[in-house]
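Job type: complex structure
Entries:
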Amino acid sequence: MFLEPKFTIQQLIDRCKGGERKAQGLLYKQFAAKMLGVCTRYAIDKVEAEDMLQNGFIKVFQKIADYRGEGSFEGWIRRIMVHSSIEYYRKHHKMLQVVSTDETAHEPSVDQVAIANLDARVLLGLIQQLSPGYRIVFNLYAIEGYSHKEIAAMTGISEGASKSQLSRARSILKEQIAKMEGKSYGYAG
Amino acid sequence: MQDKDLDNLFQSSLDGLEVEPSAQVWGRIADKLDADKRKRSILPLLSIAASILLLFTGGLLFIPKMVKVNHTDPVKIAKNEIRVKAVPIVKLPSVAGVAHPQNKKQAKAVIAAVNSLAGIKNKVNNRKPVYKPNILDTIVKRQPNEPELALASLGTKDEAVATNKVEVMVPVNNLLTRENNQQQPQGKSKSKPVKKHRIRSLGDVFNVMIAAVDKRKDKFIEFSNTDEDDATITGLNLGIIKVKKEK
């Protein structure tokens, strides 16, 4: 994975703390794809996800001196990316509480496949079609593993709102999957 | 499907998701980091520059007040000097010029007393232009006065002399005022060539601009006014520190 295997992550971090551009570039290359995977779950499309990634990495390099080596570095970067994604929605979508109910009106533009064959791309498509509030809460709770209390603190919504948004998100996703299953059965039959 | 199953389905397939970013993303990040760096490096320089500027402007606010007091007096003296010098030059010939005809007039008046009727004709013709009591009458215009004075002297010689005396007094005053009037344009025309300074170079442009703000003799900063394009500094006046390159 290392383009220049002579550097360990710790060495890169140390050099990044000194503001060395080459080391920053190498660290970016090391984590960019993984972190864009994180941002993509919070975004509508790749353009938005790359904006989140960009802001996230700028924050990483600005705050890298604060990283004390407690916990994994990847976990540290990932938390920054998640915060950057939430921040992006605060700026561009204003209110996370805004609930739109038109998700079900759109059918995911993915190939009809059996639930067993649902790959990451299809599931990503389902998440991306949720409204921002649902998407963020579902991501934070189901995939990142945060509690409702933590979600409330991170997003500024109440714990109750977090719970209700999660259950709404789940029911929408279930509906979508059931629809796809039905269609794939139809085609099979 | 249970909630837990749904969460697990998404988590297992999306948690390790990797998406390759487009090539320009790193370029944008690097640009932003450069901009931040520049901002951080420019900020202390800017604050130093700003404080220096503040000190200079502060100094300029204090200095002109002190200099002005010294400066206004020489200007006044200079003006007075010009008047004093100029007045005798213009005055002497003109006063003499007026005085002579009037002396002649007295002689005429004696003759006119004999042929009084002949004088009346002249009077009728000449009166109208005469009695415009314009202080700024020219010498030529005043000449018609003469026949009238001649008539006035019909009574007695003494009277004629008296009126002449009065008349003499008036023209002298008139002349003085006229000379003052003449003086002013003369003074202007004398000082104009000094002020009228052709702008030949970039240095001159700066000098003119600085002169508009800084009225001191030695300007805050002076540039060379040679035809060469590069404007070199020839003088500095920071109040306490004065540097001037001799031409």
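Summary: Chain A touches chain B through 37 residues (CB under 8 Å). The two ends of chain A are 45 Å apart (CA to CA).
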